Amino acid sequence: MDKNVNVDSHAWIDPVKLKRLSDIRRKELRQAAFAVLEREGIAGATLEKVAAQAGASKGIVLHYFRNKQELFEHAMREANAVLCNAVVARLRQARTPMERLDAVIEGNFEEHLFQPPLCHAWLSLCAEVPRDEKLARIQKVIHARMRSNLLSSLHGLASPRDANDIALGVTALIDGLWLRLGLQPGSVSREQAILQVKNYVAGQLARREPVTVGA
Amino acid sequence: MDKNVNVDSHAWIDPVKLKRLSDIRRKELRQAAFAVLEREGIAGATLEKVAAQAGASKGIVLHYFRNKQELFEHAMREANAVLCNAVVARLRQARTPMERLDAVIEGNFEEHLFQPPLCHAWLSLCAEVPRDEKLARIQKVIHARMRSNLLSSLHGLASPRDANDIALGVTALIDGLWLRLGLQPGSVSREQAILQVKNYVAGQLARREPVTVGA
DNA sequence: TCAACAATTGACCAATGGGACAATAAAAAG
DNA sequence: CTTTTTATTGTCCCATTGGTCAATTGTTGA
């Protein structure tokens, strides 16, 4: 457990919350699992590889997680938390509804997150959602929060009916742009992606509000 | 090979092109592979299951396909062909650029195709793209054609620069809506999806063309 | 210092995987 | 009716996998 330990740039360890050694190990293993997922995909992700990635033995993995499924479920939660934090951080600095909207959008394409490997792992996890109840629930929660964030901003900018539609469009568009990144790395830049979504929002807001007050 | 033969609704067999028995077998196996993918995902898709699905023995699968990889690469081609045909069929009946645009959009959400199982299989395949050169190429071709179809329609409706942007947006939005369907079946209806994309296009076209001629 | 406990390992196991192959059945060709 | 391909099966092999477990090695607190 020396040189093989994977330390993502966003893998800072809060010395306060991680009192227990076991918690540290668990976090290490979750991250190792995710790293393996990035490289090998769900089909190639084996307990042994995860152990190796964490610089430990296979036994230890099953000591901290009941089984493979549970391990990867926690890996998904971990990854989601990171993504979510990026959005929340930006959200805290936003004042107007429009700023909050941009916060969500830009947070979803954070420089160090909007990267092919992360996307590949994410894709693999998503591909298993239909066969893993827990993964499905996590996914559902993630989407619900995203949606909620969007709606709270949009309610100040459009009718509830329109806000709903636009929120769906934004989430779909974001997911679609991530997918593009995963399928053809380099085909979408962070800036392009952000612009796309912002343009979409602008287009929809203009289209749906039939001249509210006029300039 | 009697009752277990899977015959998708879209699995019509052209008696002209499929002279050779081997071609029939290959097509059966490709479709069986895809069916297994729908149920089990890439991680659970095994040669034995594919064989069972086709009502044959494992040996026969490897008789027609060099190895597992090749089998699933052909499965992806097959699925793509189906999707593509749906679009092409509609495209043939379209006259104006706008009609062509709608053809692409509606073709991508064809009733009997826009279904969770198909999406799940598709997702599993996409998740493997980063580790399979061939899959990546197929994926690239698919996207290129889609893009080309969109651009040929859009060139009559927007500047080349804008057309590019809009084409990217449309593909991403379509993919994103499919993803939603896969992650939360029932959360997006075919009609909703189509409306979303059409609204997007309308919003963008209105936004980008600063009053070309005026009504 | 020593007992209690947590962490960690490595050996082990049964099941399953992909793939090779020889043997057999079925067709086609002559 | 042979001969020659082609289709198909079942068996065998070996590597791998998820998971269990007993044994070992720290750690810690009394």
TrEMBL record, chains A, B:
The keyword Transport appears for this protein: no
DNA-binding region: 46-65
Domain HTH tetR-type: 23-83
Matches recorded under Gene3D superfamilies: Tetracycline Repressor, domain 2
Transmembrane segments: none
Any one GO BP annotation for this protein: glycine betaine biosynthetic process from choline
A Gene Ontology molecular function term of the record: transcription cis-regulatory region binding
Keywords: DNA-binding, Repressor, Transcription, Transcription regulation
Pathway: Amine and polyamine biosynthesis; betaine biosynthesis via choline pathway [regulation]
HAMAP family: HTH_type_BetI (MF_00768)
Function as written in the Swiss-Prot or TrEMBL entry: Repressor involved in choline regulation of the bet genes. Repressor involved in the biosynthesis of the osmoprotectant glycine betaine. It represses transcription of the choline transporter BetT and the genes of BetAB involved in the synthesis of glycine betaine.
Protein name (Swiss-Prot/TrEMBL): HTH-type transcriptional regulator BetI
Species, as recorded: Mesorhizobium qingshengii
Top-level taxonomy: Bacteria, Pseudomonadati, Pseudomonadota, Alphaproteobacteria, Hyphomicrobiales
Gene name tied to this protein: betI
